[in-house]
Amino acid sequence: MSKEEKDMYIMGSLVDSCKERTKRGKKRIRSRQTFMFSGEKVCRNTFLLFYVIGKHFLHNIITHKNTHGVTPRKHGHLGKKPSHSLQYDDIKLVVQFISSYADDFGLQQPAAPRGRDDTPPIYIPSDTTKKDVHDKYVESCPNDRHVRYSTFCNIWNQCLPHIRIAKPRDDVYMCHLRKTSKKCSFRGGKVGGSKKDAGTHHACTG
């Protein structure tokens, strides 16, 4: 039996033993219930024991029945959006911050990994953690409204999977790329370089 079916069954087992109007013709505020089980009258405690419910649950059932009749109960917040829920602007701010951070401190690879046709990955140095990035994001948030670390990581993984924290071996490769890039640019701008240098520069740029 589902929760809704149980609620309806219990409401059907409650019988109002008082009239809706008092002797003076006023609407009765407090009602007296007769508790029924298998067609027999039982006391309140026996009723609670048979249906395995508590006093608070029974009070809510009686209040709902007196107010709305024998109808299914609905949660008061049903259909309402909580004030602390994640909004589009919150996600947008996280994505913009991570992208900006990657532009400043990350190193973009020339192409996507072999066998994958997507965005080339951007590696952030391995001495930085996502927690460090989140702390800086919190400091930059206006009005002290920010997402928590777990939500921050979920947005990062779903929206920006190509931005990654480098592993130590990736750092070695990144350093090699930086040195190669500087070496090639230096040789390309050197005046009066030898043929050997020119050939090396051609190999680097080619």
Structural write-up:
The C terminus is likely disordered. The protein starts with a helix and ends with a helix. Helix 4 packs across helix 6 and helix 7 packs across helix 8. Helix content is 51%, strand content 9%. It has 206 residues and is mainly α. Strand 2 and strand 3 form a beta hairpin. The protein is elongated, with a radius of gyration of 35 Å. It has 2 domains: 66 residues, no CATH class; 79 residues, no CATH class. It has a 3-stranded antiparallel sheet with strand order 1-2-3. It has 8 helices and 6 strands.
Task: Report the count of strand segments.
Answer: 6
Order of helical and strand elements: HEEEHHHEEHHEHH
Considering DSSP H and I runs of 4 or more, what fraction of the residues is helical? Answer: 40-55%
The figure for the number of domains is 2
Q: Can you list the strand order of the major beta sheet? A: 1-2-3
Nutshell version of this structure?
Helix content is 51%, strand content 9%. With 206 residues, the protein is mainly α.
Map the helices and strands.
Elements: H1 3-12, E1 14-16, E2 33-37, E3 40-42, H2 44-51, H3 55-68, H4 88-105, E4 107-108, E5 122-124, H5 130-140, H6 149-159, E6 163-165, H7 168-189, H8 195-205
Parallel strand pairs: 5-6
Antiparallel strand pairs: 1-2, 2-3, 4-5
Helix pairs in contact: 4-6, 7-8
Which properties best describe this structure?
single chain, mainly alpha, 3-stranded antiparallel β-sheet, 3-stranded mixed β-sheet, 8 helices, 6 strands, 51% helix, 9% strand, disordered C terminus
